[in-house]
Amino acid sequence: MKETTLMRSCSNASTLLLALLAGCGGGDGNANAATPILDAKASETACVDMATKAGLTATTLTTSYVPAGTKRPGTATTGDFLPGHCMVTGSINPRVGADGKNYAIGFQLSLPDNWNGRFLYLGGGGNDGTLRDTSLSSSISLSTPSPLGQGFAVVSADGGHIGTSASFGADPQARIDHAFNAHDKTAVSAKALITQRYGRKPDKSYFSGCSGGGRQGMMFSQRFPDYFDGITAGAPAMRVSSGATVAAMWNNAKFTGIAPKDAAGNRILSQAFSNDDLTLAAKAINAACDASDGVLDGMVNNVKACTFNPSVLQCTGSKTATCLSTEQVGALKDVFAGPKNSAGTALYAGQPWDPGLAAPGWRAWTLGSSTTATPDSRYNVLMVDALVNEFFTPPDPTFNPLNFNFDTDPARMLWFSAIYDTYADATLADYKKRGGKLLFIHGMSDPIFSASDTLAYYDRLSADNGGLASTQGFARTFLVPGMNHCSGGMATDNYDSIQTMVDWVEKGIAPDSIPAVATASNTYFPSRSRPLCAYPKFAKYKGTGSIEDAGNFACSDN
To answer: Taking burial as the number of CB atoms within 10 A of a residue's CB, which of 32, 146, 248, 412 is the most buried?
Structure first.
């Protein structure tokens, strides 16, 4: 394995040539140009030479060649090997921030020897700060065989900072980088490097991500609509600053407020509901809603027909294993209705009722597992970190989340929301005009980014684009019953959304359904398959055959 590093200046003549070849990072072309297929030695030489020939402005590049047959990192599967490829690690615009810390926009691009002409940008998540493994698939497309292994050129980015804490929010430029600038610079640089390596631009460019990655996809569709032919936005964090984080503070307060106390009088959040309590609620939701899709199978497919009132579980006397306390019922009502200010104005969508609330992923976000009064829910760890360091302007690192004021504190988040959130534009006119395709995918029991919020956005998108039929020509939504945040839960959460998008963009096959399965490790439905249906349709049982087999279900709107 060879490595070489070089910093190139904008005065280099190759920069000008590359700019002419790559344009401004937008539309792709040269679809009929030949891609050289080199032997391993020539590929390695070309890889090592990239850093000296790329000519990217203010960018440090390190290249290393990974020979064919190298085992994929972190995998135990026999025969799970990578193709020969060049791994390019880049650092754009290194600088010292206002907080005295070192910053740069980091990315990693893998360029396979036998390129299929496609470019894939893997979205990040959380507060970013790390590079995703470019040999793996997107976090919202777990059943996709390694795109790199298929011949995609694949890039990931760190969002302009190192480390998963949002403490970078003390530097104004780091906020802007995280919001959009780091991804713009990464996409442009990656396409330029692809052009340099293969002698032509990508034939087609794709983006796929979930959570924060879903937000990044929506950001591209709005700010840079000519960069990608297809965007998959899973559980898109479109209102993470102005809505979902407010909801996280609301939910955290509601659940903490009913939790039992320790000997010192401090509440233990994780004990607000036992696992048995959540299972009891899940069974009640199934009892109310499961049959509406034609069969009792432990999944609520007909989500629009589901109405549930947790009061049916309220104890008439003392708390027992067969009922919930008055306080527990009240907390569930408040959380699933969504946050409100003192005037009763909704601040974010509520959560749809789904039995997936009994799965570990739902607990991890809302309640955690700490047996002490120090909470470890992801609301308290990830979301509070983002709130106090990045979403508040100015940052307020010592803020106590239980003191969040739902009348006044949302206003402290509006400045950053204006550059970070992606909910306002429900037209996507430029992306549609460009011919781009968009897939929304969302788990129905996602406890942080509500599927109801995504549906509300999709309804607005449809209204602004001439109705559902017209909108489905370029944008479709797929709900995953039972799925928690991006994956997991009582769900068939494994599917190949990347191939679905490729078929739509390149073959014109608009997806009416996406085949999905539950993995063998799924303790709820280990051998189940289902069609994920384009909203507003849902998977309905045909009336005969095994309920584990997708072939016995059809997409229906009634």
So the answer is: 248
- pLDDT (tens digit per residue) in 41-90: 889 998 988 887 777 878 899 999 999 988 776 654 545 678 999 999 99
Across the chain, which distance is largest between two alpha carbons, in Å?
Answer: 81
Rounded to 10 deg, the angle between the 13-22 and 182-198 helix axes is 100
Give the DSSP per-residue string, 372-434.
SSS---HIIIIIHHHIIIIISSS--TT--GGG--TTTGGGGGHHHHHHH---S----HHHHHH
pTM across the whole model = 0.92
Tell me which of 211, 221, 487, 529 is the catalytic residue: 211
Cis peptide before 394, with omega less than 30 degrees from 0? yes
Report if residue 212 sits inside a domain.
no
Q: What is the C-alpha to C-alpha distance for residues 421 and 203, in angstroms, rounded to an integer?
A: 30
- Number of residues that make up the chain: 558
Domain enclosing residue 107, as ranges: 3-204
**Number of domain units in the chain:** 1
211 noted as active-site residue: yes
H/E element, 156: strand 153-157
Which tokens hold the place of 221? Answer: 């569709």
> Is 64 one of the annotated active-site residues of the chain?
no
Of 290, 446, 493, 496, which residue is the catalytic one?
Answer: 446
In a domain, residue 140? The reply is yes
